[in-house]
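Troubleshooting log. The previous run stalled partway through. Resubmitting the same two chains, unchanged.
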Amino acid sequence: MFKFLFITCDEATMICNKSQYNEASLFEKIQLNIHFLRCGICRLYTKQNNKMSDLFRMKATDCQKEKPCLSDIDKAALKQKLENSKA
Amino acid sequence: MANTKPTLQPDKWIDNYADYLYNYAVVRVNDSDLAKDLVQDTFIAALKSAKNFQGKSTERTWLVSILKRKVIDYYRKINSKKGQAEVRMNFYVDGEQEGNWLEERVPQSWDNASEKAVENEELKDQLEACIDNLPEKYAMVFRMKTIQEFETEEICKELDITASNLWVIIHRARTQLRKCMEDNWFNS
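Second attempt completed without errors. Output:
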């Protein structure tokens, strides 16, 4: 009975990763919290995972600021290739 | 009513759409050379199938739909051939103790974690190196989800994978990244 509430560390950390994006279900969060009661390792993982998320957000902000585009040289080369492929 | 059907103007493609398509590709594959190749392949494929253009969508939408297929093809390629060859790190036990942490991979506590997590270039470089170390398929899905912040649904649609498939990839990627940062940054 209630076996469905008990999950492995693999499953627990999977839910933890999902919840970093706010996409874990309520049931999954309950399973995760029950797992925390008996598993210090996964509690530590979760704490560190929050920190990792902060780092990723920092990186995301950086990357989204960039507006990559092609150089004129690239475009000229592209035009040449396209011209050749027509022939 | 002449000219109601939009016609293709291949001579203007590069000036009008190359940057847009390149940008579209590079946020997905995160590699400028590869993105350039995909854009080039898209234009060439578009030229070849120009006669099939029915004018139901704009020129740009039509070109993007071709590029989308190129991105899926690329994902399938790294998923099948190269993805298999790369060794993925295991963190959990198989067999009887299934799903428990492997002893040698158990997370260690981080000393001075808050000090070390202060934003600086070195930290960003290390993070980038760790992401690059992931199997290519993990890196691609992880970046799309976490760095480019795409919706789960969007990624699943674009790469033709299921949500549970996506979460397994994200889970493995993040577990490996945590370990990589532990070894090379927090506890190095």
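Takeaways: Chain B has a mean pLDDT of 90. The two ends of chain B are 72 Å apart (CA to CA).
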